[in-house]
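About this split. The held-out portion is used to measure sequence recovery: a designer receives only the structure tokens and must propose an amino acid at every position. Recovery is the fraction of positions where the proposal matches the reference. Here is one held-out target exactly as it appears in the evaluation file.
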């Protein structure tokens, strides 16, 4: 059956694929919202299965490192699986809408809790460095401002996507003192920094943090400078797939997203003739460079992530990998 994905779904996929949606949280919730709107327009359970199968699969391919996206998709499929099997289209819609509402509420509450915990680690007069664009980090820094804490925030430009510019603008518009600088000055400016607060795309079972490329360099420079690094991430960003050694897939963009062929020609370079361009979007920060992960359950050491996953999924671990679950629940009739 051909997939009846509509324009709203395609628009969200393109926005995620090409970085127009920068926040991992916003990307995950945008996918859920688009799927909800599309389900309202299908006319059969077969079409509903095709929408969920194709849209969710493409969303995972567009942002494969996003553990929150992976986990909310898993939850969505589990929420509607029985109704799909029964052929109950109205039941599918109702179950999905209920899951969507509950997830939006949960994410908002969890992010608020984490941000408030993070604010307790920020003191008036601190210079805080952040990186890229994180919904939770922005919330925490704005809360610090609301509480009257005078904080200066250092923000690298965060190439290749330049997410730091948006972070700097939002904080500046909110009245927070911001200094924007080139990525190559991270180590040079670390001596002026009191704390580093960063978001995450995913947290692996061993406590390693997957985030925007360049995050590992910040953590390394902070470790060298004896500056504490705090990762703000809900447990919904923990990746259960990594329990069994599955690697988090790190997205790379096409060469033209960094430099155009016309620009290369100006300096006498051509792709494919002993010359290439790599544009990684994410990297992995080892747990030894992270002082604490601030979750809705409190501050934990990176080494405690495995125990947290056991608490969530039981022991032995009980969960179905999301792509396998997607295939089982949404296979064609």
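Reference sequence for scoring:
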């Amino acid at each position: 059956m051909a997939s009846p994905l509509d324009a709203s779904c395609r628009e969200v996929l393109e926005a995620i694929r090409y970085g127009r949606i920068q926040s991992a949280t916003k990307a995950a919730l945008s996918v859920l919202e688009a799927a909800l709107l599309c389900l309202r327009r299908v006319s059969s359970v077969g079409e509903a299965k095709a929408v969920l199968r194709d849209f969710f699969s493409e969303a995972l391919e567009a942002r494969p490192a996003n553990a929150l996206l992976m986990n909310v998709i898993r939850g969505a499929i589990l929420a509607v699986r029985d109704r799909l099997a029964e052929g109950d289209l109205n039941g599918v819609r109702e179950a999905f809408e209920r899951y969507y509402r509950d997830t939006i509420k949960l994410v908002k509450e969890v992010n608020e809790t984490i941000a408030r915990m993070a604010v307790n680690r920020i003191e008036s007069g601190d210079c805080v460095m952040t990186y890229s664009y994180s919904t939770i980090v922005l919330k925490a820094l704005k809360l610090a401002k609301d509480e009257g804490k005078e904080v200066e925030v250092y923000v690298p430009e965060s190439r290749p996507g330049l997410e730091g510019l948006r972070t700097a603008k939002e904080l500046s518009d909110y009245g927070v003192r911001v200094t924007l600088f080139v990525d190559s000055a991270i180590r040079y400016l670390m001596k002026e920094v009191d704390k580093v607060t960063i978001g995450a795309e995913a947290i692996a079972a061993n406590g390693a943090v997957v985030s925007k490329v360049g995050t590992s360099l910040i953590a390394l420079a902070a470790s060298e400078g004896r500056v504490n690094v705090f990762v703000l991430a809900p447990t919904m960003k923990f990746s259960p797939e990594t329990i069994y050694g599955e690697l988090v897939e790190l997205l790379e963009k096409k060469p033209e997203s960094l430099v155009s062929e016309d620009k290369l020609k100006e300096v006498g370079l051509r792709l494919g003739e002993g010359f290439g361009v790599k544009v990684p979007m994410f990297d992995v920060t080892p747990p030894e460079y992270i002082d604490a992960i601030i979750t809705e359950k409190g501050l934990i050491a990176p080494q405690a992530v495995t125990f947290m996953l056991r608490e969530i999924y039981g022991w032995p671990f009980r969960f179905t990998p999301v792509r396998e679950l997607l295939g089982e629940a949404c296979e064609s009739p």
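Annotator remark: The longest strand covers residues 152-156.
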